[in-house]
Amino acid sequence: MKKRFNIAIQMDPLEKINPKADSTYIIVKEAQDRGYKTFHYLPKDISLKNNNIIVEGYYFKIVDLNKKILKKQKKKSINLNKFDCVLVRQDPPFDMEYITTTYLLEMISDKVLIINNPTEIRNNPEKLSMFYFKDLIPKTLISRNLFEIENFIKKNLYTILKPLYGSGGEGIQKVKRGSIKNKKIILNMIKKYKGAIIAQKFIKEINKGDRRIILIDGNYIGSVARIPKKGSIKANFHAGGYAKKTGLVFRDKKICKSLQSYLKKKGLFFTGIDVIGNYLTEINVTSPTGILEINKLNSMKIEKIYWDNLEKKLEKKIEAT
Questions:
Q1: Residue 318 forms part of a structural domain
Q2: pTM of the model
Q3: What is the tens place of the pLDDT at every residue in 99-123?
């Protein structure tokens, strides 16, 4: 008889999650269907007390996935060492609270399997870790220096500007070389996002979609093209993009193969990479989404593949401890 694992989920309030757009609900529902116990806590409710990592939250059951009907038990405090696995599924921003949770989770990572590896979540910000693969990315500058950004824009007909730690298409702007508005746009972004921003050469193949490619333990599982609405450059589903079926196109196979050993080595079990045309633009390691759309377009159940692979890791972890 298979072990019924005890799973903790560190994420945003369950009531605020849209089950039709977020991958977490379907992953959790599959865990519950396998007989696992699931416990929810918020990032703010994790504490270090007497050398123990304590969380305050509640066990819950998804009664109706589509209607988001939940059955919760009484709130309680539990030592995270009591769990077999912790799923880190909170959304960005990648801020000091987020970083602090990775420090705390690190303290129990020798005893509890944490997905993704908290050390590597912290060490691989989603718009920075792609620089480990310089031959796969478009021309990109990260800076808060106005002179540097203006010079970068002069070298390209069109440039994309976006916040370094934004998500869901937030703050993305397309600027044209020579526009008198560029200086004001740059300064406003630096002020709003309190630091460096990203300047990236515009990739014209965005009209064919910004592809979200799902990798589990470094292996390709599925992909979906996110197509911007007419007149928009934002392909994210949160920003109005729509889903279109796709396979591995352009340099997708090479990109997946190039990332495979790195992701496995770093313990980045569940990742969603973003690719436009021939270029890798992000490696999402915090709370990747996209599996609902891939499932629907390809008659798949990625959540089953997720847990089939994760069960093997859990069994190895238990044997080792």
A1: no
A2: 0.93
A3: 999 999 999 999 999 999 999 999 9
- The pLDDT of residue 16 is above 80: yes
64's CB contacts (< 8 A; 6+ apart) are none
The CA distances from residue 143 to 35, 87, 167, 176, 187, in Å, are: 48, 33, 18, 18, 12
Residue 60 lies in a domain: yes
**CATH no. for residue 230?**
3.30.470.20
We report the CATH number of the domain holding residue 169 as 3.30.1490.20
**Contact of 122 with 102, CB cutoff 8 Å:** yes
Length of the chain: 321
Q: How far apart are CA 220 and CA 40, in angstroms?
A: 29
Q: CA 297, 299, 302, 308: dihedral to nearest 10 degrees?
A: -170
DSSP structure string for 255-273: HHHHHHHHHHHHT--EEEE
Closest residue by Cα to residue 247 from 214, 216, 274, 223:
223
Tokens at 135, concatenated? 């031959």
